[in-house]
Amino acid sequence: MAKKEVKKTQVENKGKDKVSYPLTKINFILMGICLLLIIIGFWLMTGDANVGDKFNEKLFESSRVTTGPIIAFLGFVLMAFAIIYRKK
Q1: Which residue, of 6, 19, 22, 26, is most buried by count of CB atoms within 10 Å of its CB?
Q2: Does 34 fall in a domain?
Q3: What does the alpha-carbon distance between residue 65 and residue 67 come to, in Å, rounded to a whole number?
Q4: How many structural domains are present in the chain?
Q5: Please, are residues 84 and 27 in contact by the beta-carbon 8 Å criterion?
Q6: What is the DSSP letter of 55?
Q7: What whole-number distance in Å separates Cα of residue 82 and Cα of residue 30?
Q8: CA–CA separation, 38 vs 69, rounded Å?
Q9: Rounded Cα–Cα distance for residues 34 and 31 (Å)
Q10: Rounded-to-integer distance, Cα 32 and Cα 28, Å
Q11: Using only C-alpha atoms, what is the Rg of the chain?
Q12: What's the rounded Cα separation, in Å, for the pair 49 and 65?
């Protein structure tokens, strides 16, 4: 008779237990935004290279030299924050 009571409590508690995962929906949204920042940063750094004797002046544009790397770096730094973030 005692065994039946134990089984009932296990079945009753089975539906009430809540599984918590380390990353929530907001973490994945933030990580997606950071991944988008990284892709935009690398996209800003792309461009044509020097071809033969002709020098390409676009190698030293501000978007390729400063803006792109800064945006990509911010994406990497914020990615760490997005993984660690926990809603209170």
Answers
A1: 26
A2: yes
A3: 6
A4: 1
A5: no
A6: -
A7: 5
A8: 9
A9: 5
A10: 6
A11: 26
A12: 14
Contact 45, 79 (CB under 8 A): no
- Phi/psi class of residue 80: alpha, beta or left (left: φ > 0; alpha: ψ in -120 to 50)? alpha
- The domain in which residue 26 lies consists of 19-84
- pTM exceeding the 0.90 threshold for the entire prediction: no
What's the whole-number mean pLDDT along residues 63-80? 95
Q: Are 26 and 85 in contact (CB under 8 A)?
A: yes
pLDDT digits (tens, 9 = 90+) for 4-58: 555 555 555 565 677 888 899 999 999 999 999 999 999 999 988 888 788 888 8
Task: Report if residue 1 sits inside a domain.
Answer: no
- How far apart, in whole angstroms, are the C-alpha atoms of residue 10 and residue 46? 59
Task: Give CA separation, 31 vs 43, 81, 85, in Å.
Answer: 18, 9, 10
> Is 11 part of any domain?
no
